[in-house]
Amino acid sequence: ERHAQAHWPRVVPEAFIQIGDFFKMSLESAAKRGFSRIALIVFFGKAVKMAQGVPHTHAAKSALTMSKLAQWTLDISGDEKLSENVLAANTARHAFDILQEPCPEVIHHVGRQIVDSAGKFAGTTIRIRSVIFDYKGIYVI
Q1: pLDDT tens across 118-134, in order?
Q2: Measured in Å, how far apart are the chain's first and last C-alpha atoms?
Q3: Do the domain assignments include residue 78?
Q4: 16 within 8 A of 5, measured Cβ to Cβ
Q5: Considering Cα of 26, then 108, then 61, then 119, what sign does the dihedral take?
C-alpha cells in the first residue's frame, strides 16, 4: 500500500483499500457497492496467483504453482531453457528475477491475466487495471 501511495500521491489515502488475500470476495464486494474503477496493485507472488484466478491467495489456502507461469514463459518467449528455469524457481520472487531482464513480456502477460481474472470475479463492467511492483517497490507494469 505504501508503494502505491508513494507512486500516486494525489490520490486520497481512503482510496487505497488493502484486499489482503481475499481476491474474489473483494471484487464481488466492490461490484455490489458500485465501484466503477479498480486498480489491483501487487507484488509478483500475489500477481501470479491472481493471474491464475485463485480466489483466496493466502499461502495456507492456495499453493503457488510455477507450472502455468512456466507455460506462459514458453508460449511468449519460445525459450525452453527459460521456461524450465521458471518452473524450477523456488518462489515467485525467484521467478520474477529470472524473467525480469530476458523476458519482461511474461510479467506484462501476468498483469493482463490479473485483469481477466478480476473481471470474472467482479462480473460487471468495472474498469480494472493491474500494477505490478518489483520487490524494491519500483513500478514494473
Answers
A1: 999 998 789 999 999 99
A2: 16
A3: yes
A4: yes
A5: positive
Q: Rounded distance, CA 79 to CA 87, Å?
A: 12
Does 137 or 64 have the greater pLDDT score? 137
Q: What band does 62 get if pLDDT is binned at 50, 70 and 90?
A: low
The reply to whether the predicted model has a pTM over 0.85 is yes
Is 137 part of a structural domain of the chain?
no
Based on the structure, what is the number of domains in the chain? 1
User: Kind of pairing, strands 127-132 and 37-42?
Assistant: parallel
pLDDT in tens, 69-90: 999 999 999 999 999 999 999 9
Return d(Cα 35, Cα 89) in angstroms, integer.
37
* Per-residue buried b or exposed e for 61-80, using 16+ beta carbons within 10 Å of the residue's own CB: eeebebebbbebbbebbeee
Supply the range of the domain harboring residue 86.
Answer: 2-132
User: Is position 7 within any domain?
Assistant: yes
Residues 6+ apart with CB under 8 A from 79: 73, 102, 103
